[in-house]
């Protein structure tokens, strides 16, 4: 647990503001010379002002009051999430095609909080997911992770691995990317639609590999040319975009890095440049002893994605958003276990040999790998943003102050909270975190950094699909 006395040093909004010395000679500027603030600048200033007021108010309270303000409203979150699994208002009809995602967001959030659902609701969810039609890679991933999160023989055995393998092969594209769907036009994560032949290097590729990996059906045929496609999506900033020639994005960066680790080709990425991109999104707030800006190795896109608000943003010159606490924070968790490759690339050019491996074992072995370096971002500051600025008193978490709660942001904010709590774990004992902000009751379950499912449920599913299914060999 972090001493409350250290909190004020985490952000610049607290304490008395120093008055600038008045000078006898004041510089003036003609009105015509004053630059007009852009929409982005005005929005950023507004968000900083809102967050600043929250932090300033927090800093004025005595330690015991601050302690209560930092409490994770666990029971309220559980009530909110269980309500989303039973009855949704008519306004949710726009998410009809994303119902497997609604299942995953709520089930995963509950699992992070250490909560389960009753047998009847579990049976209803398994039955619903087994009836879903018009397959799509994104919803396939959501459905599989929902069943993994539920756990148990009924949920896991409801997945037809042979049919799944055939579906995944149909989604392959000669470029190394993957189609998300074949014939249909359906809503995706963000406003807009994904069309036939649409390639998504980030979500589609990782979803493809994660489904195949956790079901123990990932083979050489399924990963052919994947690495080259991901490499074509790494931008000049260092981050990874959805497809070649587009802007780097936190979600796609996480998916790209995880994909390259899973296929044993992470050394092909320019990791120092990637780290630099993330660093640029998180550097403004912290003292030099927290984030050593004088160290060129640390002046690496990821960390710079975490700004004055203490939360992460997803793209350059965009606003803070709590969901990136996982997408960016999760990338840090991946890079912490790839630091030796980063250090080698600082001396030796990008590339090198890859070795033959069993792809289905990589996810299992990676989570056991020792963390060889300190956290690349300040997990305490991220927890501060999530608990004070994103948390709704009545349950659920929101993008940022002024926004409304929703299941998506609740899921990924809690995932990011878990990552930031366990970021200091330096061995296989992931249940012994060293950085829980607020009451120790805030501690969430650890997650697998690839799959974003609770670690215990991942191990159960892996054991199931490597033992129970040994006698059920896929015949194509």
UniProtKB/TrEMBL annotation:
Gene3D superfamilies: 1.50.10.20. Its EC number is 2.5.1.58. Binds 1 zinc ion per subunit. GO terms for molecular function: protein farnesyltransferase activity; zinc ion binding. The keyword Ubl conjugation does not apply. Belongs to the protein prenyltransferase subunit beta family. Heterodimer of FTA and FTB. Catalyzes the transfer of a farnesyl moiety from farnesyl diphosphate to a cysteine at the fourth position from the C-terminus of several proteins. The beta subunit is responsible for peptide-binding. This is Protein farnesyltransferase subunit beta.
